[in-house]
Amino acid sequence: MLVETNAGTVEGFGENGYAVFLGVPYAAPITPERRFMAPRPVARWSGVRPARALSAVCPQIPTYGPVGKAAASKLEFGTDFLTVNIRTPSVKGSAPVLVWVHGGGYAVGSANEAVLQSGAFAASGIVEVTVNYRLGALGFLHLNDGSPDNRGLLDQIAALEWVRDNIAAFGGDPKRVTFAGRSAGGFAIAAVMAMPAARGLFARAMPQSGASTGVSSMEDAQKLNRRMLDRLQVTEAELRDLPFETLLVAQRDLCNESYEQHDFDRDGSASMLGVPFVPVIDGTSLPLHPEDAAARGETAAVPMMIGCTTGEYVTHATAQPEMDFEGAARLLHERVRPMGATGAGIVARYRQALPDHTPRGIWRAVGGDLVFQNPATRFARLHAAHQPVYKYLYGPVEADELGAPHGAEVGEVWYRSGMDVGRLPARQAVTDKAFAEHVHAIWVSFIRDEAPRTPVGDLVGDWPLYSALRPQVLHMDRGAFRLTADPFGGRTALWEASHG
Description:
Pfam families: COesterase (PF00135). By secondary structure, this protein is α/β, with parallel strands linked by helices.
């Protein structure tokens, strides 16, 4: 099965009734001398390039404790990893397109993981494109030598440009592209929505369990630059000559240090998330924080579907020792200093709002809100003032802030009827296949028609728009689908200075 791209012909194969093209390059390899440069178009090749095997992935090693260890790719890494994997219902058509950005705290993960190889969206009539991009220092370390900032996001924009120019040859409609991602992928979607270079490259956006979190000021980016160079005892120019493994060890150590020992004076705003290698507001590629851009109506003028799971911090909280309320306040203090708050003050507010929570439950509530729920709520409210927004909540709302952990919905979102669910990691297990089919169908409906539709439950058909005045979410819980007031929406008030 042959398709002609702008750079040459690729050969794919058939699978489960759709066509597959793996490891197709959208930009030139990241060789040592090009580690910190903007992505460039791939050189044209002659003959036919096989697209029957997954490419290498971005160099990485396990990072960020138990959550990052689970997300880290175990696949071979290399330099030719700026690639996309494409599955299409037909190369002769004009189907809607899904472009998916993987998560992993901007340091681990890949588009080549098993959960993203199901072909679920291709089987549902959508051209699916999963994107590999530069992670960690390669993608997000600020340098003072003229290298562009936000290289990992520039890679994603290059992939979107490749889709614009080539996806029609794979049976896709370049005017009906949905840009989506989960966790750091969701953070990336929100950031790219605020980047002028991405205007017009996608028609819908879908940040999933991630929104406007993890964006650095230039001052904080300079702090990380100094820490990285001091750790390696090199100059910026010498970074290009280091073995990947040396760069990765220093990157891992800085990430783990920030994740395990939050320090506002050392990390600045990155202390909130504990993820140091993040997009930077450089005034050029990313002129404004995504929330500021959304408040001005300067994010991408596209409909958005956004949401979280009910227990976003369930797994993250396992990295912390047993604690009492005072211990939770101490652990939290450095994380909330960028917001002008204190750990004791925030814990006191949450204890008043959630009196039945244990110390661990308060920690789960605060962490989940700080990193996931509140940013999603704020970004949804701001974007909804200018564009259509649909908000969802996945999983049961349980006592003591338990519920569906971060990433629990991915197996359902990427579920294909008849697939071997045994290939999925335990954290993405599918136990109710009928429920999985319905969840997947909601995602398909947004990609295909913009207004997402609920296939079963109390609300059958389109669900209403989300807004600050009508903060309604579609709650997907154990086979049931219902429209309800956002149970997490009011928690943004717990962080406001005026809160009593």
